[in-house]
Amino acid sequence: MKEENDLKLTPLTVRLQDSDTLKYTGTGIIYSHESLSDKLYILTASHCLFKDGDNFKDLRENINIDIYNSETKKYDRLTHKINPDLLFRNINKDVAVLIIDKSAIHSIIEIIPTIKVIKEKDTYQKFIVKGFPKATFSEELAVLYPTWLQHVPLVFIF
């Protein structure tokens, strides 16, 4: 992984916060592609959008999305209504998508680079994960360089 690619992910990494309790619930990444026209995706884990986490029973109505503004050196916040049709309620498919108007993010991030999403486990041997860990109370952005623990067919875990 080249350092410049690592640095491209920093402004694209967002922090998620419960809009009622103001407790941080997780991390997401802004995904942009030409085919999305006036929309952007925020990819995250479904459990971040549920009050009961991995039980997937109590879905939050809204989520706050903190986006880093490199000009002000602070996070700007958007509140987003969660669409239950854009998430899985399954521990083995813990994926959700938030669709955002590109104009809302462009007011915070002027240039939104495109990133490649890994679709197959064995496509890449080196990659990074960025996020806001609970260990830092979601106040610091951390980077991990994970490796695949095993190469067993149909087992999709780190």
Would you mind describing this structure in some detail?
With 158 residues, this protein is mainly beta. It is 8% helix and 30% strand. It contains 2 helices and 8 strands. It has a 6-stranded antiparallel beta sheet. The radius of gyration is 16 Å and the shape is globular. The two termini are 17 Å apart. The model has no long low-confidence stretch (mean pLDDT 84).
List keywords for this structure.
globular, 158 residues, six-stranded antiparallel sheet, mainly beta, single chain, 2 helices
The averaged pLDDT comes out at 84
Main sheet strand line-up: 5-4-1-2-3-6
Structural class: mainly beta
Question: Low-confidence parts lasting 5 or more residues at pLDDT below 50?
Answer: none
Order of helices and strands, N to C? HEEEEEEHEE
Provide the β-strand percentage band. Answer: 25-35%
Major β-sheet annotation:
6 strands, antiparallel
Q: What coarse outline follows from CA principal-axis ratios?
A: globular
Rg over CA atoms: 16 Å
End-to-end gap: 17 Å
Tell me roughly what share of residues is in helical segments.
Answer: under 10%
Find the count of extended strands (DSSP E, 2+ residues). 8
